[in-house]
Design brief:
The complex is a heterodimer of chains A (91) and B (139).
Chain A: E1 2-5, E2 19-22, H1 27-37, H2 39-45, E3 46-47, E4 50-51, E5 55-59, E6 62-63, E7 79-84, E8 87-89
Chain B: E1 4-6, H1 8-20, E2 27-33, E3 38-45, E4 54-56, H2 59-71, E5 75-83, H3 92-97, E6 104-109, H4 117-120, E7 121-127, E8 130-134, E9 136-138
Parallel strand pairs in B: 1-9, 5-6
Antiparallel strand pairs in B: 2-3, 2-5, 6-7, 7-8
Amino acid sequence: MSTVRIPPVLRETVGGSRSLAANGATVDEVLADLFANYPALRERVTSDGELSPFVNVYVNDRDVRYREGLETQVGPDDTVILLPAMAGGTG
Amino acid sequence: MKALVLPPSVADELMRHARAELPNEACGLLSGSPANGRVSRFHPARNVEASPLRYNVHPEDLVRITFAIEDEGEELAAIFHSHTRSAAVPSATDRRTAMYPDAFYLLASLADPDARPARALRAWRIYRGQAFEVPLTIG
């Protein structure tokens, strides 16, 4: 099982936990396991069944967009972080 | 609605950061206490978009600063970004992408390059795509 670190902004969706354990060999599988157990978290970070483009996912503090995206491998010693982006602009 | 309280030194720091990032939008996080609206410190971040029209806090900065604030025993109080040519009012993009309902959104307008912080800065809350201005106190 890998560890999923929950930032303050998402804690209310997981009963206040700072970190959780989740099964899965890839980010996609880890998120599926997490969302099955925490539907409020799924509702907060997904849109039309897909992870919102405004949510960053990290494995060991590295954004998976710069690795293999949701197919990025996750091992038992790895830490996954879900963190809503801070983004916007005049355009 | 509860006011956001900004120390004058932090207000000056925000304006310096916004001007230093021109021609692009600037961004960063403010720590403190969202419960009483008091800001204690500004944490500048890189704008990964490097654009005059858009901002996106660099993912590496976002994760580092988010957990550093918590490790220091503080909370995220506000999210800062600048508008280089328009008013300090959340745009449709700002409202659509806002994902922090408990934080204040603090905007700086650089439309008037000589504006003092009290005129350039405005504070907002954004819920479900709607923005509500809140009083901003610098002092």
